[in-house]
Each structure stands twice: as structure tokens, then as C-alpha cells.
Amino acid sequence: MILPTSDGSKAKSVFLNAGLDGDRAVKTANAAMNSAIKMVLYLAIDGIPADLEAKITANVNKHLDVVVSTSLDLAATAYVQATPPAPPHSASPPSAPGVAAATAAGLAAGASIGAVRHDLYRAGSVLGDAEAIASGNPERIARRAAQHVFWRAFGKLGRGIFRGIGGKR
């Protein structure tokens, strides 16, 4: 059986163009591929007569470099043709300093801790709504809208039921 083979130059090119560590990546990929093929070979020949095992091992070892090079080239071709992943979102700055500043400002203005906490939760809710709208995902936007409708109705119902129990009248 004759299979198309290659020399591994495409994979080397892709790895070497990947940055400063490209040469190390080529060596690592080659070693990993060699190890994987030898492991499969040893599993496949386990328990067969020794003379047949020696012939198979010699044949595989004779062609191992070509098999590894061809496999790496095929992987490099698939890698180059694959659509690149979306760039990761930049890490958001930590919000703790902003929350601390808002809390300090609210308390300095004479508001109670409960009032400041309520305002911060409300601001977080508004920011969550803005984030859902900015995502453009209709399912996410609809889910947030449904949550608002549900909690408004539940809040009114709860206030109506529990108005006279220890709360505001």
C-alpha cells in the first residue's frame, strides 16, 4: 500500500513562525508523535511471537520518521485552515476599588449603609442589563427582561402579603 507522505516542512514552518519557542515546539511535537506511535505499536504487538514482533518493530522503526513528518504536516495544514479563535476578552479591571469609593462617598454624604448597599445592588443590576444588551444575544436579553418582570410581580405580591408583618405599613 502506497500512501502520500511528506517531509514535515509545513509543520516546521508553522511551528517556527509561531514565535521564539518554535524550534522547541517542533522537537516536542516530534517526540510526542514518536512516543504515541511506539506506544500503539507495543500495544498492538503484545502477545504475538517474538520473531514476528521483531519484524513489525523493525518495519515501523524504518518508516517512523516519514509517518511522524506526514502526520505533523497534516496537523499543520488543519491548524492553518482552521478559523482562529475569537480574541479573548481583555480582563476587566477589578471592581472592588470602585465599590469601596462609592460606599465611602455614600457614607460621607450621610446615607445609611443599607441605602448605599441598595444603590450598589441597583447599579449592578443596571450594569448587568447593559452588558446583556451589549452582548447582542437575544436569548440573554430576553432572559434578563423575563427576570425583571418576574421579580417585579413577585415583589409586589410579597409586599402585599407581608405588609402588616413587622415591616413598613
Structure description:
- This protein is mainly α and 169 residues long.
- It folds into two domains: 9-81, no CATH class; 100-162, no CATH class.
- The protein has helices spanning 9-16, 22-45, 50-81, 96-108, 113-135, 138-162.
- Helix 1 (9-16) crosses helix 2 (22-45) and helix 1 crosses helix 3 (50-81).
- The longest helix has 32 residues, at 50-81.
- The radius of gyration is 32 Å and the shape is elongated.
- The model has no long low-confidence stretch (mean pLDDT 78).
Order of helices and strands: HHHHHH
Counting DSSP E segments of at least 2 residues, the number of strands comes to 0
* Number of separate helices: 6
As a percent range, the share of strand residues is: under 5%
Structural class: mainly alpha
Radius of gyration: 32 Å
Q: List segments where confidence is low: pLDDT < 50 over at least 5 consecutive residues.
A: none
Overall residue-averaged pLDDT value? 78
Termini Cα gap: 89 Å
Provide the helix percentage: over 70%
Shape: elongated
Described by strand count, sense and barrel closure, the largest sheet is:
none
Domains counted in the coordinates: how many? 2
